[in-house]
Every structure is written in structure tokens, then in C-alpha cells.
Design brief:
Blueprint: E1 3-6, H1 8-14, E2 18-20, E3 26-29, E4 38-45, E5 50-59, E6 65-70, E7 75-79, H2 85-103, H3 109-123
Parallel strand pairs: 1-7
Antiparallel strand pairs: 1-2, 3-4, 3-7, 4-5, 5-6
Length: 124
């Protein structure tokens, strides 16, 4: 639910289109009033599905500053934060899965039709 698009460089490097956002990621705002600005994610609210970015504030009428909450679909990750070991494992799982799919032989249509006919015979 909190996945954010990766930049083109990160897509090529990790072989993924998007990845969940966490505190410490460098992101770029892609649309809205703050379009083009970048900063680090300072908080991720999983209940409201919003992320807050350092340095992006709105000023209220009384002069106080409040953090702007962004929808993850409006953000793009420029740099990943790897303080959490589980993030590394998630990327490694993806890369291992890609390598296994390439090396495994594909079944032909003839083999699958033979398997289906043998299953029908077993059912009878």
C-alpha cells in the first residue's frame, strides 16, 4: 500500500518498478504544489497511508508551520535507505527469483497436454 515508484537508475539497478517507502529514503515530489522538490522521508503514517518529507512545510494563519502529508503515488524514490536488513533481503529475493526463472526449462504444449490427459484417466 505504501509503494513508491523508483527512479530510472534504481529500476535498472534493482530490477523493480516500485518499492515500499520507509523513513530515511530520499524522494522527489512528482506532482502538486511542491513538484520537483526533494527531501528525506521523516515519517510514514501507515494508518492514513501518507508520508512526510523533511523541509516541506505549510504556514498556517497564526504563523505555525505544519508538515505536508504526501500520497505515495505522488512521490519517486531517488535513493533507498538500507538501515533495515529486511529491505536488503527483499531485493535479493527478487533477484534470485529472476535468475531461477531464466535458468528453468520451459514446458512445451505437448507435455502439458499429456499431463492433462493422464489426470483425466486417473479421475475416471
Amino acid at each position: 500500500m505504501m509503494s513508491v515508484n523508483l527512479s530510472k537508475e534504481l529500476r535498472k539497478k534493482y530490477g523493480k518498478r516500485n518499492f515500499p517507502v520507509v523513513k530515511g529514503d530520499d524522494v522527489r515530489i512528482m506532482s502538486g504544489e511542491f513538484k520537483g522538490k526533494t527531501g528525506k522521508v521523516m515519517d510514514v503514517n501507515l494508518k492514513k497511508l501518507k508520508a512526510m518529507i523533511e523541509g516541506i512545510h505549510r504556514t498556517k494563519k497564526d504563523g505555525t508551520k505544519i508538515s505536508v502529508k504526501f500520497d505515495p503515488s505522488k512521490l519517486q524514490i531517488k535513493e533507498l535507505n538500507f538501515d533495515d536488513k529486511k529491505r536488503n533481503e527483499a531485493l535479493e529475493r527478487k533477484n534470485i527469483g529472476i535468475n531461477q526463472n531464466i535458468s528453468s526449462p520451459k514446458t512445451s504444449k505437448q507435455q502439458t497436454s499429456k499431463d492433462q490427459s493422464s489426470n483425466k484417466n486417473k479421475i475416471k
